[in-house]
Amino acid sequence: MNQNNGAGARKPIRVVLAKPGLDGHDQGAKVVARALMEAGFEVIYTGLRQTPEAIARIALDEDADVVALSSMAGSHLPICRKLAPLLQQAGLADKLWIIGGNLPAQDHDALRALGFRGIFPSSSRLGDIVNFIRTNAS
Amino acid sequence: MKPKDMPQDGPRPIVNESGIAIKPLYSAADVEASGGTAMIGLPGEYPFTRGIHPLMYRKQPWTMRQYTGFGNAADTNKRFHYLIANGQTGLNVAFDLPTQCGLDSDDPQAEGEIGRVGMAVDTLRDFEVAFEGVDLDRITVSLTINGAAAILIAMYLAMAEKRGYDLAKLRGTAQNDILKEFVGRGTWIYPVEPSIRLVGDTIEYCAKHAPKYSPVSVCGYHIRESGADPAQEMAYAFCIAQAYADDVIRRGLPVDEFAGRLSFNFNCFGNIFEQVAKFRAGRSLWAKIMKEKYGATKPGSMWMRMIAGGGGGGLTFEQPELNIVRGAYYALICALAGTQTMALCCFDEAYTIPSEYAQRISLRTMQLLIEEMGLAETVDPLAGSYYVETLTNQMRGRMEAIMSEVDAQGGIVKLIAEGAIQARVSSQAYQRQREIEEGRFRKVGVNCYRTEEKTPEMEFHPYRDDDARAQIQSLSKVRAERDPARVRAALARVQADARSGANLIPAIVEAVKAYASVGEISAVLVGVYGRYSEPVRF
């Protein structure tokens, strides 16, 4: 949550950026991580092969404002179906959940229904991701 | 434009991706200034700039080997037969992520990933089904497997042996390049040191028992996809290949007994001339390294044998039909550069694993070059071009400089283990993305010549939960039918050999023949070696 720290500066937005599942393609995730850091956000990049349980725990421990996933290998729906209830149980339902990667348009409604408010398929611009987080993370 | 007609301040400066300034016109003087013609030579002769064989495609066109595999072994077997019926001359097998990460289909971590990006393999039974009816003498098979490569190579050899093939004559390739998995692609399992030792085990074992089999295909490809420039791609791949060679030489195996079976896998998207020069330069540099540094004497030990044709980083999500055109140019590059094998990327692969239709287009693209365009008629047709020869010299110089820098910084193994190479290429990937978004690096359909037309419908590869359940059931059936005492004994030997540091392949071959699973064997190795822990550096 962004709070005024009394000195006029806002606490930076904290983003936990995770690579769920077994997919090892992390070029995109690392590029996005750099863009978010350059935009002034605090980024906790989890590295590869995170289970839904681990992602929910890291998001809670790190006091994340944003939970961001990067998925390139097609398993986004089964992963998000497992992760969404875990994030809710961890009390993170009010945080901003977003996902990027190889996400066919036909799956976007299902991802939104699960609670992922930002969906950024492969051709997305870094600036759009940054702006979306800035506007929607609170 | 002739030089004298140029405006006073000269044309717009252009620097290629590898950092070399490109002139508007080249002449013999440029070839001289860049190092002359001494390294050009003749095809089939040291330093092999012009090709590793004297007649190249005039004798035999490149092997056409599309990357394929999905679902279970039976689905994959059907696609193999479809491609072979369409004129494909090799197979390039894709495995699903659980297989690549050394997990069985019934592992909780495999849920949702079984058969998704490649074929699911749990036991030797899956290989028996996948290759049924494929003549392994006529169709060479490449296994795209890395972390679990020792197990899958053992499985392939066991399957071939069971079908009566003579291992002394069996050809084929495994990717088995674990160091690049730490840089990009990410299907590592064990820590760096034992992972290299396992690669060394496969090289040593094949040199002795399957001498025609290529146990390693060192990949610049994925390092390029992770953000490396073309010169870095090749330089880092050569550093990695040397790390494996060093491991095997430390065991006392002479270089000429294994170096001839090392091969390479490279990317090819980007500037046509830079790419062709990269391959020509790389061929001569690898020959020089093997001859001068390693004292190789057999020509085959000096050959940079390669597969190319992919360039995922060059393909676009926007206007995907343009990827067919890009692919045709990538195939042209590879043919002009003298590749041994082509696996041409497919237009739909930015979206999904390629459809049968997309694969056939890629296959036909290669066939067009051979049948209609004259690409298999004359060896190294760009040789003698002032531009290409100058660029070949300059690219070789860049690669040597990058390799010296790696050595000065402590060597490739140390730099990868620390995450330094990863940080370098990922920073470059970020810069490139910025350049694309700001329009400074042009991508047609992305930052110029965009269209509002709707993207044509893509045929998405289906994923069925039923198939995953069937794979798990078939694994259970194999487990129920195999001899448990034989499995236990074989796994105990894998463990003992991992602890003692003996070459592990004989024990793994025995285990796969007993129908021990990928996950079971890998778990034993994790028990001895531990798991890799990723250094995340920015």
Kindly describe this structure.
The complex is a heterodimer of chains A (138) and B (538). With 138 residues, chain A is of the alpha/beta class. Chain A has one domain (14-20, 40-136): Cobalamin-binding domain (Rossmann fold). Helices cover 39% and strands 18% of the residues of chain A. In chain A, strand 4 (96-101), helix 4 (108-114) and strand 5 form a beta-alpha-beta unit. In chain A, helix 2 (52-61) packs across helix 3. The relative contact order of chain A is 0.19. Chain B is built from 20 helices and 12 strands. Chain B has a 5-stranded parallel β-sheet with strand order 3-12-11-10-9. In chain B, helix 7 packs across helix 9 (230-250) and helix 10 (272-293) runs parallel beside helix 12 (322-337). The two termini of chain B are 45 Å apart. At the A-B interface, helix 1 and helix 3 of A face helix 3 and helix 16 of B.
What is the CATH topology of chain A?
Answer: Rossmann fold
- How many β-strand runs of chain A? 5
- The amount of helix of chain B comes to 40-55%
Tell how many strands the DSSP assignment of chain B holds: 12
Q: State the domain count of chain A.
A: 1
CATH architecture of chain A: 3-Layer(aba) Sandwich
Low-confidence stretches of chain A: 1-7
What series of H and E elements makes up the topology of chain A? EHEHEHEHEH
